[in-house]
């Protein structure tokens, strides 16, 4: 898919980083976006900028909250009768050296935002996706959550484990929706975003471009992990 004109896109975490850069590309190509952010002031500022490029509707959502995925789903159903692309991009990351420094609560706290919110959004929006044109879901993961990365380093274990779980969820949803909705995972790269930090080698624009590339893959590509348009191992 390279023609995004008129495509209806839900993009979580659209007010910063990869989500913001991808939004600019899709809007310039004629897509309509419902984009979320968790900070009201930042989302308002971002929306004012993005609305100069096209149809961008902001929706305030903090996916740490159990109510957020359902509220977003209800809003999307109220606005659109179909959905072409769901970009599960929002996530949180806390760096700690290992499980001992993280303690027992962090995994429980971040599981909802990094795994369950994505699962619930797919579950609750699948009816709209099945009415879309060559619909697809992209779960934004990380190379830090690959099996090889888990074997190589125990640092930031909650983040790594949630992203590894997101990969498994991607495979399962791809099987369930095969022939109806393409479901893939994206590693946007280590980037200078709020999550990636200032020492990262890549720029947010690189991640936006890779999100564009994965959405331009042949529709029958599903259940895989991608770095842009290059397949990688889960």
From TrEMBL:
Q: Which GO terms describe its biological process?
A: secondary metabolic process
InterPro entries per UniProt = Fungal_SecMetab_SDRs, NAD(P)-bd_dom_sf, SDR_fam
Name a Pfam family for this protein.
adh_short
Molecular function GO labels: oxidoreductase activity
- Name one cellular component (GO) term: cytoplasm
Q: What is this protein called?
A: Classical SDR family protein
UniProt source species? Candidatus Planktophila dulcis
Q: Recite the lineage of the species.
A: Bacteria, Bacillati, Actinomycetota, Actinomycetes, Candidatus Nanopelagicales
């Amino acid at each position: 898919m390279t023609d995004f004109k008129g495509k209806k896109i839900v993009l979580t975490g659209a007010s910063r980083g990869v989500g913001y850069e991808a939004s600019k590309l899709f809007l310039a190509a004629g897509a309509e976006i419902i984009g979320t952010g968790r900070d009201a002031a930042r989302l308002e500022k971002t929306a004012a900028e993005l609305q100069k490029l096209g149809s961008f509707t902001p929706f305030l959502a903090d996916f740490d909250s159990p109510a957020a995925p359902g509220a977003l789903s209800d809003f999307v159903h109220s606005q659109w009768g179909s959905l072409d692309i769901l970009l599960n991009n929002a996530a949180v990351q806390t760096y700690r050296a290992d499980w001992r420094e993280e303690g027992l609560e962090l995994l429980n706290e971040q599981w909802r935002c990094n795994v369950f919110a994505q699962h619930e959004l797919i579950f609750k929006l699948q009816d709209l996706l099945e009415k879309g044109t060559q619909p697809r879901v992209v779960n934004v993961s990380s190379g830090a959550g690959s099996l090889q990365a888990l074997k190589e380093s125990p640092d930031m274990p909650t983040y790594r484990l949630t992203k590894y779980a997101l990969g498994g969820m991607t495979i399962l949803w791809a099987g369930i929706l095969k022939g109806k909705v393409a479901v893939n995972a994206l590693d946007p790269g280590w980037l200078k975003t709020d999550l990636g930090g200032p020492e990262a080698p890549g720029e947010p624009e690189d991640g936006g471009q890779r999100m564009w590339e994965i959405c331009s893959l042949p529709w029958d590509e599903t259940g895989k992990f991608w770095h842009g348009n290059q397949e990688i191992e889960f």
